[in-house]
Here is the input.
Amino acid sequence: MKYKCMLCGYIYDDEKEEIKFADLPEDWTCPLCGVGKDMFELVEDVVEEKKEEDTLSNAVQISENNVSIERINSNCINCGLCVRTCTVKEGMTFDKNSELCVNCGQCIQTCPVNALIPKDDRKKLYEALESNKITIAYTSPSVRVSFAECFGMEVGTFSQEKLIGALRLLGFKYVFDTTFAADLTIMEEANELVNRIKNNGKLPMFTSCCPAWIKYAEQFYPEILDNISSCKSPIGMMGKVVKEYFCKSNNIDNAYTVAITPCTAKKFEITREEIDGTDLVITISELVKIIKEKNIKYEDIPESDYDSVLGEGSGAGIIFGNTGGVMEAALRTAYNMITKEDLDEVVFHDVRGYENVKEATIDVGDLTLNVAVVHGITNIKNIIEDIKNNRCKYHFIEVMNCEGGCIGGGGQPKLFLEEEQMLKEKRIKSLYERDHTSKIRCSYNNPDIISIYKKFFQGVGSPLAKELLHTTYIKR
Ligand code: SF4
Here is the structure.
């Protein structure tokens, strides 16, 4: 039997869930929009009519090899909104070659009936938590401003401590902060930028933290791959640091690492041979389903803090979740690397905001840096054409696939489309507020970062840092 939420379209399928709908507790709520059981109606007949794959000609094609997104054919109403998102927002030529998917999951965000969902990896997580492995979670910056809204709180509510508490309730032995690895990314990326500028290296340099952007460039613009920073994404770095630094120094040889992300493309990223270290990516949407399956109520979740050593992140790392955040974080550190001085004012207003392409000119010591920030992947095309024609004036360009940045990732809780930008701006504001009140606002001042470079890497850009924290790209 299947039951459909009358508000958001979520389908509860008795056959797939562990508890029958009728047996759910009376205060159970829709995992997607939070309304009660009384807002669900039995829809089995309606849904069964639309099960056949070949009747779904308007729907985005999802390859069976797709590790990020899955389609529940029985939910699909063949409305074509997902294809519209893929062509308009992602700029894809919808030629039915589903292998070209960049795994961003924006189609999931648009689907009105939850026919598209993040690849469901809940079973893998349950198995890991029930095994004798040492389970280690780490949370991306942007999920701490979307977690609470799944439990009826206001969009953008900052809920880091509850999120950590929920992971501990589920049985994770350690909980770390991927913001730490965002700081690590900034140290390596700012160092790379400064080196490229000083040594006539390839410019402009693109950021590399968004795996959807990387796959997009590898597929459609292989000629600019040398322009992309060689830094792994924060999750790519975190997996390596947890396994090679934390686990080895604590004699843990049976760790199972789980990244809690806003992002479906990260599920693809960890399948890349060179990005080892993270065993599983669970989107915040999947995590919330698990918490609700276990009947854990938000108010009953105890607040908790990250485990130390890899648990400290700066305000610069926190704003990684916003469009413009990586750029601003990198500028704070690049300024210090070039001038050896601290900024009086760490906020770079020109790279903040919701415009799809933002640009700024920044004086850093004797250097004048031209930078650009792009979100919504299709907006990068003109800049790439300028690079190919030697007309590009920028030194450094941040690219994020999703509108708003990772706060708008494909694995985030869905927002009402009519109010999408306004609601995303609430999440953005929440991350900036946390940065504003952080004691440490620049990556190079993070004591955990200082310590790991001293004790382990032996310096920024060292041979060991190059080996563990950097990567290469391939033409696809
Ligand atoms: Fe993932 Fe963030 Fe890139 Fe979206 S912008 S695909 S959430 S990394």
Observations:
- Residues 55-117 form a domain with the Alpha-Beta Plaits fold (CATH 3.30.70.20).
- Residues 104, 210-212, 262-263, 265, 400-402, 405-406, 409 surround iron/sulfur cluster (CB under 6 Å).
